[in-house]
Amino acid sequence: MLEQKIFDVTDPRLIRELVRRHSWATLVSHTPARGLVVSHLPVLVADDDPAVADGTEGTPPLTLAGHLAADDAEAHELGAHDVVVVVEGPQGYISPTWYGSGPHVPTWNFVVVHVHGRPELLAPERTYDVLSDTVDHFERHFADPWTLDRADAYARRIAPGVSGFRLPAARVTAKAKLSQDESPQEVDRLADALGSEQPWARPELARAMRAAGRRR
Length: 216
Known about the structure:
By secondary structure, this protein is α+β, with helices and mostly antiparallel strands.
């Protein structure tokens, strides 16, 4: 991944927030029988806690929790090999026409986290807890959040078709390429373009760029 230090993200709270906001991830592993195996799945911060998010307690090492179809878990030989989980945040194309001065060429701004480690497969009851937590995570914005216990009997009947896991991070690499190498004035121009009501609009990316500029 991009090695320029200016784009490194090392603040564990920012990394956790990215996973919370962009929980649809890509799981990549390599097995002797199949070679590369790739799946897509929701993931959570396993040890999530408001105190950690607020920075009032020490931030523990990142651990993800997730689930995927049992057949997919078998294809990955989950638990037998190291994997990487890729969590992608806001991203978008940057046109040279948006700058106030030049020269510039097209580029792509993005935020991404790679979480490396060896998954730990979970027992059925803990897998069910991950399923319930996942539902709660995505339902939390609704006025009347749906909970898994509303369909408890059915959910428990089909849950054996799913494999839950925890992934303690052995290594985390995070990048936020958000035009930090440009002047504050240029960042504002780019963010204005991305926040406009046009087909190329990426308002979340625009907000991320402005936030990165404030942290400089």
